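User: Hey, my collaborator sent me this sequence without any context and asked if I could get a structure. I don't really work with proteins. Can you help?
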Amino acid sequence: MSIGLAIGGGGSHGAFAVGALEVLHNHGIRFDLIAGTSTGALIAPFAALHMIDALVYAYTHVTTDDILKRDILNDAVTLVTRQALFDTGPLERLINSTLTEALYIKLLSAPTQVLIATTRMHDGLLAYWSPLGTDYPLFLKALLAAASQPLLMPLVRLKDGLYCDGGVRENIPLSVFLGFDTVYAIVLDPVALPQGPPHYDLCQLVSRTLALLLANTVDYTLQIAQEEMAENGQSLTIIRPDTPLEGDGLTFDPAAMTRMMDLGRAKATEILA
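Assistant: No problem. I've predicted the 3D structure and written it out in C-alpha cell form, which is a compact way to encode the shape of the chain:
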C-alpha cells in the first residue's frame, strides 16, 4: 500500500505541521513520498529521514532574525531595487548549514522520496524538485526558492529561470499523489479565514493580500482533491487547524511556535483517534 504526505505552506505556522508530523510518526505511519510547499518544503527532507526531533527543535528555537532581514525604514526603496521587502540571506545560510551534504546523500537512498514545489515565474509552471537527479547545490537553491514568497522575498534563479514559492500555484501539493492508496495532508490555513489588523504597514499589506488570494485556492484544491480521490478509491486524511494560527507566518517567535506545535499534536491525535 502506497502512502503519501502533503505539507502545505505557512511560514512559522509550519510548527503546527511538525507537531502533527510527530504524532503521525509516533503512530508508526511511514510514507513513500513526502511533498512540500514553502515551509512544508523545508520540513519534507528532514521528515523523510525521520529527523523529527531536529524539526521540533528548529520550529521551537529559530527566530525571525534567523530567517529574514528587513530594512523597515526603506521598504519602498528595497521593494524597487530588490523586488522584495525581505533579504533571505539568513534563510539561505540556515538551509545550507542544516541540510548538509551528508544528509543530502542519505536522501538519495532513503525509502521515502521527497518533492518540493516551486513556481517558475515567466510561464507559471508548477515545478517539483527531487534530490534524485538534482545535484546538492541546486537542491539547496530549489529549497530556498520553494520557501520564497514573491514580493516579500526575492525570486531565486535556478537552471532555466526565476523561481518562487510553489504555493503561488498549489499551496497544498496534492497533484503528485495520483495512484496512491492513502494520502495525508497537513494544511496550515485554517478552516475559517483569519481577521486582519485594522491598519497595515507595507509588509502587512502584501502579506494580507497574498493570504486573501490563497484562501479560496486552498479550499478549492482540497475540495477537488477529495472528490477525485474518492472517485479513485483513495483515502485522503486532512489535518488542519480549526481556527487561525498565531501571527502572520512571517514572525518566528519560539513561544508562539511551541503553542502551535502543541495544537498540531492535538489535532493529529484527534484525527487519528
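In plain terms: The longest helix spans residues 202-231. You can pass these C-alpha cells on to your collaborator as they are.
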